[in-house]
């Protein structure tokens, strides 16, 4: 059986809003936010200007200039109909910038990623108040809390304001997302990002969960998922021929029972539990399993609950795991055709 976590390990955890938003990830995002373009040489600038001038002269004679230029905030992101969706990383009010967000270079669905928000208003605007973020998915209409309320008690480290407010979260679907930043549950501002899908989709790795068998000997369960966070039991498995396999295949249209294991704080693991599935190439989730809670501790996990799941079609599927309507993790699996 897995030994209980030590106090030293608990104290070493990251202090950020989401424990999977690591110090290394934070430093990477802050570095990108501070990074300034390097100055080009005079000759390079002269060459670039000459090339631009030549292109403009050409376009002046062949097309309507008003149709050529698109605002930088409208370049990325399309919906299912192919219509361009506006995307922007800053929020302005009455011509004044209120905040700006610095995401990672490529925001991908199903992956924990970091964000830095640069707020311009004085710290007194935020002290003692809660900041939260909600996301809205344009293609499916899905809405969820991506960052639970955080009470602001001090400025960003080394600054007099919230110059570098860091957070991290993952998103269940690719497409265009609008994020509403709220202050004490009231709308403060928003930003819009285009979220990519992995290409190609790849099955999430499995990991071992040690336990002591009835024979008193050490054994391992095989779980699909994110180690030390969440996974469901897929092996060892004895097939119809009596062979012991590491993993039980997941077959389309065939229901089966699966045990889910969770690791996390009491706050993280409190609330309803839902598994929603989305097939590669689609943007619509279907409900796979739901329960009122995630159960009790077992085999070194902080919570365990049995489930029954079935997926209707063969292919690659992402199982989005929600606790209290907040995305907890995503697990990508291969579903085989029934033979």
Overview of the structural elements:
The chain is mostly beta strands and 339 residues long. The protein has two domains: 75-195, Immunoglobulin-like; 206-336, Immunoglobulin-like (Sandwich), CATH 2.60.40. Helices cover 11% and strands 41% of the residues. It is built from three helices and 21 strands. The chain has helices at 7-11, 23-34, 42-62, and strands at 90-93, 96-103, 113-119, 130-137, 143-151, 165-169, 175-183, 186-195, 206-212, 218-226, 230-235, 237-238, 244-245, 250-251, 256-262, 273-279, 286-291, 296-298, 301-309, 315-323, 326-336. A six-stranded antiparallel beta sheet has the order 9-10-11-15-19-18, with no helix packed on it. A five-stranded mixed beta sheet has the order 14-21-20-16-17, with no helix packed on it. The longest helix has 21 residues, at 42-62. The model is unreliable at 1-21 and 36-84 (pLDDT under 50).
């Amino acid at each position: 059986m897995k030994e209980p976590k030590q106090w030293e390990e608990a104290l070493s955890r990251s202090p950020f809003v989401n424990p999977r938003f690591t110090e290394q990830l934070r430093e990477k995002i802050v570095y990108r936010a501070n990074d300034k373009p390097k100055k080009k040489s005079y000759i390079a600038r002269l060459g670039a200007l000459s090339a631009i001038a030549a292109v403009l002269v050409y376009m002046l004679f062949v097309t309507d200039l008003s149709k050529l230029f698109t605002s930088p905030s409208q370049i990325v992101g399309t919906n299912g109909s192919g219509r361009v969706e506006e995307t922007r990383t800053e929020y302005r009010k009455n011509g004044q910038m209120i905040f700006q967000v610095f995401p990672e270079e490529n925001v991908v669905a199903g992956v924990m990623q970091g964000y830095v928000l640069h707020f311009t208003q004085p710290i007194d605007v935020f002290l003692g108040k809660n900041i939260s973020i909600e996301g809205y998915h344009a293609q499916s209409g899905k809405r969820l809390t991506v960052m639970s309320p955080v009470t602001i008690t001090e400025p960003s480290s080394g600054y007099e304001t919230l110059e570098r407010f860091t957070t991290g979260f993952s998103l269940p679907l690719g497409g265009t997302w609008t994020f509403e930043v709220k202050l004490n549950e009231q709308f403060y501002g928003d930003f819009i990002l285009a979220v990519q899908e992995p290409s190609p989709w790849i099955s999430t790795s499995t990991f071992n969960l040690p336990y002591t068998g009835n024979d008193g000997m050490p054994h391992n369960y095989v779980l699909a998922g994110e180690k030390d966070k969440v996974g469901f039991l897929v092996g060892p498995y004895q097939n119809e021929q009596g062979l012991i396999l590491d993993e039980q295949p997941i077959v389309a249209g065939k229901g089966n029972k699966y045990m889910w294991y969770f690791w996390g704080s009491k706050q993280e693991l409190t609330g309803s539990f839902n598994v929603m599935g989305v097939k590669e190439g689609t943007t619509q989730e279907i409900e796979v399993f739901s329960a009122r809670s995630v159960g009790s501790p077992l085999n070194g996990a902080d919570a365990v609950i049995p489930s029954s799941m079935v997926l209707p079609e063969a292919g690659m599927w992402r199982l989005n795991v929600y606790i209290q309507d907040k995305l907890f993790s995503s697990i990508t699996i291969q579903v085989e055709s029934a033979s």
